[in-house]
Every structure is written in C-alpha cells, then in structure tokens.
Amino acid sequence: MKEIRKNIAQMPGYVPGEQPQSGRFIKLNTNECPYLPSEKIAAACLETIRKGLNRYPDPMANSFRKAAAEVLDVPPEFIMAGNGSDDILTILTRTFVGENETLRLPYPSYVLYKSLAQIQGARSEEIPFTDDWHLSPAFKTPSSDLKLVYLPNPNSPSGTRLSRAEILELADALPCPLVVDEAYADFSDENCVSLVLEHKNIIVTRTFSKSYGLAGLRFGFVIAHPDYIQQFVKVKDSYNCDALSIAAATAAISDRQWFNETVEKIIKTRNWMRPALAELGFNTVESHANFIWCTRKDWDLKNIYQKLKEQNIFVRFMVYDKWKDGGCGLRISVGTDEEIRILLERIKAILN
Amino acid sequence: MKEIRKNIAQMPGYVPGEQPQSGRFIKLNTNECPYLPSEKIAAACLETIRKGLNRYPDPMANSFRKAAAEVLDVPPEFIMAGNGSDDILTILTRTFVGENETLRLPYPSYVLYKSLAQIQGARSEEIPFTDDWHLSPAFKTPSSDLKLVYLPNPNSPSGTRLSRAEILELADALPCPLVVDEAYADFSDENCVSLVLEHKNIIVTRTFSKSYGLAGLRFGFVIAHPDYIQQFVKVKDSYNCDALSIAAATAAISDRQWFNETVEKIIKTRNWMRPALAELGFNTVESHANFIWCTRKDWDLKNIYQKLKEQNIFVRFMVYDKWKDGGCGLRISVGTDEEIRILLERIKAILN
To answer: What is the pTM of this model?
Structure first.
C-alpha cells in the first residue's frame, strides 16, 4: 500500500504473548502477577466513578506523582505517568530518536524496543550480551548518530541484572540518554532510581503490570530530570492516563503492605522454582525478576511449550536466532506455588 | 538541549483546556458532557475488577469492536479502539506521515493536528476555511508530498459541518487518506461512517469524551478499511486500552437509551442557547456540535473570559491570529439548562 510509510508497511509488528480471554488456564507467559491487586483499588475506582467520568482527568496525574515521589524518595517533578510503560517507551523514543538516527539495545532483550525504532523509521543497533549476560565493550562505545540506549535491568528473557556501578559506568561512556527499563526491578535487590538524581542522562522507567498486579490497568511511569520531563509532556497525548487508572495506581502504590507481601511471596516461589526446573534438566540462570529463563539442548522446547498449551498451561517459547545454540528458550513466569507445582508435574510427564 | 530532537525542542506543545481538579465550578471549556455517563458503567468496572486486573487486557478490545459494529452497522474488522481519540490521531499520523512530509488541516480547527505534525517532524499545511466555513479550492488540491488530511466534522471551534457530498468530493480529489474527525458527529444529523465502506481513503475517528460523557475514561476508536487497520495495529501500543475502559465503553455504547436521551437533551439546550447568546450581542454560527462559537468586535472577549473565570465559570477563550478580525472568540460548551442560565446572567452582568 503506497499510502503507508515504508518503515511501517515493511515491519512485521510486535507480537505480544497470548492473552486467552476465557476458560480456565495457568498463565505463565507474560510475567503478570499471579495474585489479585490491592483491595483498595475497587474503592478508589468507585469513588472516581461517583465523582464523574464525564470530566477530563488531570493531564499530569499529580495525585499519583505525589504518592510515587514519597515511595521512591524523588521530587514529584522527576515523575511522569503513562498509559503502561509501553506508552512511556513510545514517548521516549519519539522525543530522542528521529528518522535514520540510531537506537541501541542489548540482545536478547525486550523485542519492543526494535519495533519502536521501526515505527519511528530509525535504525536499531542490537548488541549481544556476553555469554554470562554482561555488556560487551561495543555496548559502551559512543557513535555520532546514537540518540538513545535502552537497557532493561533486570533483563528479559534472562532475568539477569547489571549492578548500579556498571550502569553508572555505561552512562558516563554514552553520548546520549540511557533508559534503564526497570519493569522487573521490584523483584531485585538493587535499582537505579537514585542515580537519576545524580546523573541527568539516566532515565528510569517503571510499570504497574508486574509487581503491582495491574497489567489490566495500563499504568507505568518514568523518572527523569525535570528538563526532560518537560519535553516528554509535549510528546505525550494530553490526557494519556485515564481517571480510573490514576486513582487505582495511586491507591496501589500507597498500599505498601500489599506490595511488600506480594513481592516477598513471588521471590519465595522463584527461589524454589529455579532448582526444581534445574532438577528437570533445564539450564537456568539466577533471576532477579518474576520469571525464569530455561534452555536445554536435549529436548525440543517448542514441543514442551505446545504440549503444555494443550493442557491450558501457557509459558513463553522464545527464539532469538542470532543468539547461541539457536537462541530457543522457555521464559516461565513465577506463578503461585500451586501453579508451579502443577507446571513441574506436567513438564515431568512430558519428559518421561 | 542537544539530546532532544529539534522539532520537539522547538515546538511549544499543545495546551489543553484548563482542568480544575477541585472546588465548585461551571465548566464549559472543553466540550465535556454535563451529565454523568450511563449507570451501567460502575457494574461493568466492578465485574472487571472482580475478574482480575492482574491480567493483560485483550489487545484488540474485541468485545467493544463487536458492540460498536452493531451500533454503527459496519463489520468489526473496520474498527480499532484507542486510548482516547488522541491516541487514534497519533497512530494515524505515525502510520501515514514521515519526517518532512506534509499533513493538511483546515484553519481554524483542532490545534492538536499541528502538534502531531510537529512531534513527527512533518510539515503542516493550514488552509483557511472560507468566510462561511466551507473548504476553499486549495484544500482539495493534490500535492506530491501530501500524506494525510485531517478534517474535523463538525469542526471546532465553529461547530459547523460539511455535507457528506462535499466530503466525498474532497476524498475523490485527494491523493492520500482523508481523516474525518467525528468527535462531535453524534450531535449532528449526518455523519460519514457509511462512506468508509465505499471509499477506502475515508477514515473516520470517534471519541467517548463528548456524547458518551466519558472524557475521564480515555476511549476513542477509528473506522477504516481493514487493510489500514492492520497497519494501525503495528503502530499502536500492544495494550493501548485498559480492561476497565474496554468494559466501560462496551457498556456505554450498548446503553442506547442513555445515549439517545442525553444527546437529545444537549441538542435541546443548544437550540435555545444560541439565540440567547445572539440576544446578548454575540455573533454566532449554527452549531452541529455541543458548543457555540461566539465572536464580537464591541467587547474584549478575553476580559469576559477572565471575569467569568473569577466567578468559577470556565469557557474557552481562543485566538486564531491568522483568522479574520484577529480570530478571537469564546467557545462555550453546552452545559445543563441551569448552567447555561447562570452563564447568561453572569455575561449580562459583565456587559452592563
């Protein structure tokens, strides 16, 4: 179609994980939280409905900014909310990267970054991790048309993370902003939020889809220097967050008890899940996120994925064809203890 | 800041109407519905919360597509939902218009179109309406780098509309897709939805912010040929609509009684509001939307706007500096009968 921009017409489009909308299933394919979110959310939504959805929401979601600022110990001016962290990543890409300019990302990592570059008509430069999931020197090398670098930390699909020291060293070496995508940082013992205050070119993104159990709500945010926030505000849709999600996210981030208990439960399950998968013969790597990356050469992983799916158990089969050993793996989200027990039994049956 | 794309750094940014978040006021500045939305929405939201916001929503909002398809008498494949019609307009711009390419819009009209071109690094070509709010021949003239044309119909700030025949003639003359932004079409006696089925290059956008009383929800949609929809899906964020807004919008569009009664009330108020404003000395033009565009040369309109604001009555003061007589005007949304009676009294007092 000649009307469509070439970069759009030629791109395949990002394919999100399967989202079955009805039936009973165990869903371990998109790193959702297996627990229902804070019970304070229903009341916050009802109160918002009572006040009247006929009015536009606060364009800057200030009630949320204030609550998040307290929890994260940064000034509210450093925070901007988005319609999921995908909205935030879209805004960042559009702010920093023009057509034919370059966006850098590690490989294998979150496939969306490349799609965002394609939509923008920009070039994406995928630089492989080292074998032990660290950054190669090429990742830190400046280049003249490099406009933005994405680094998910912890990374997906590996669940591995780089230390704050490594990230600071990277930011110092780069000629452009470094976006540390902390979608999974709540499951890690370290994060980069405070680095944003010290280093203008470090930008941190967060989501409510994982550690807050609110994937259905679409809410995320960015932590960045206010000079950058002012530019992002120009690029975002005026009312990018709706009144219900602002109220719900504000209630959720303020409920520290729910958050602490839930994250603790997920880490506890993760801690016994990894050795159990290893015992079944999978190669795994230490995860700082809410999923485990599983590889093995002695079985067809796609076959395991399909047989599980036939039993209404969804895990994510991924292929990174430029990665070692063909790059196949299963990324398995941390579910409830019960869900993981069933998963392990079923895998055992498939392997026997 | 050298890190920011030049087109972004240099643009002023779209400034939405004031959204006071607390206090008692009469709000007639952003064309919201003065009535609370359908009562079915609370139940739909609660049911969605009960099912679990921890799961991602349906990426294509199929329940909504099906409901909207029935109401509008088009196949569901012609429909894609968005996070407000702003999200839809952003997606359309990014699909069709690259850097340095041209986007055409009438003047005066919705200022956002120009901002979308600026964010994209594209050129915007503003072509003035004729004095009686029709299209000048220049608007229909093809040019080689013209990639997209926006036409709000009914138009804002004027409330005027072009006939289906005029729009069809325009679409035939243009070398690129024509987006008919029907944000206000529910208040008009004609719309272009069925033209989309006949003419591939006509694309219609709709919003729930005006006639469905759901500005706080952020929900809109586009009606376009499925070949185009497939491309828009690549450009949109995977989960651009959250589970609550999908459920609420589906409930709202299915409640035809609420919709018909509400639109009827608004039109009734509009019909007595215009002559009442004319009696106070304003020049007005027939409105097919939920607002009236008021101009006059004998008074400082900014002064009227400010004096009303001091009394917690918000109307929109607009300046289109390339338009006749300096392009100043007050765009006043249709409120409840009571709100409009108070407004008229206060204006009368200001004028005396």
So the answer is: 0.97
A97 and B5 in contact by Cβ < 8 A? yes
Query: Tens of pLDDT along B240-277?
Result: 999 999 999 999 999 999 999 999 999 999 999 999 99
Domains in chain A: boundaries: 18-36+257-351, 40-254
Residues of B in contact with A53 (CB under 8 A): 36-37, 41, 213-217, 248
Query: B6-36+257-351: which CATH number, 3.30.470.20, 3.30.1490.100, 3.90.1150.10, 3.30.470.10?
Result: 3.90.1150.10
CATH superfamily of the A18-36+257-351 domain: Aspartate Aminotransferase, domain 1 (3.90.1150.10)
Task: Answer yes or no: do A5 and B97 touch at CB < 8 A.
Answer: yes
The token pair at A168 is 């600071």
Q: Do domains A18-36+257-351 and A40-254 have the same CATH topology?
A: no
Q: Check CB contact under 8 Å for B16 and A59.
A: yes
Predicted-assembly ipTM surpassing the 0.85 threshold: yes
What's the pLDDT at A23? 77
Alpha-carbon distance A351 to nearest alpha carbon in chain B (angstroms): 29
Instruction: Give the one of B8, B240, B242 whose C-beta lies nearest to A231's C-beta.
Output: B8
Candidate from A12, A21, A209 with C-beta closest to B58 = A21
pLDDT for the residue A13: 80
> Which of B1, B38, B54, B246 has the most A C-beta neighbours within 10 Å, making it the best mutation to test the interface with A?
B54
Q: Which residues in chain A have their CB less than 8 angstroms from residue B45's CB?
A: 45-46, 49, 244
Which of these, A187, A141, A138, A139, lies nearest to A161 by C-alpha position? A187
Asked if B244 lies within 8 A of A45 by C-beta distance, the reply is yes
Cβ neighbours, 10 Å, residue A295 = 19
Residue of A nearest to B215 (CA): A56
Alpha-carbon gap, residue A49 to A40, rounded angstroms: 15
Distance from CA of B208 to the nearest CA of A (A): 9
> CA separation (Å) from B251 to A73, A215, A266, B208, B343?
40, 21, 35, 12, 33
CATH number for A40-254 (one of 1.10.760.10, 3.40.640.10, 3.75.10.10, 3.10.450.50): it is 3.40.640.10
Topology (CATH) of B40-255: Aspartate Aminotransferase; domain 2 (3.40.640)
Residue A80: which H helix or E strand, with range?
Answer: strand A79-82
With bands split at pLDDT 50, 70 and 90, how would you rate the model's confidence at B19? confident
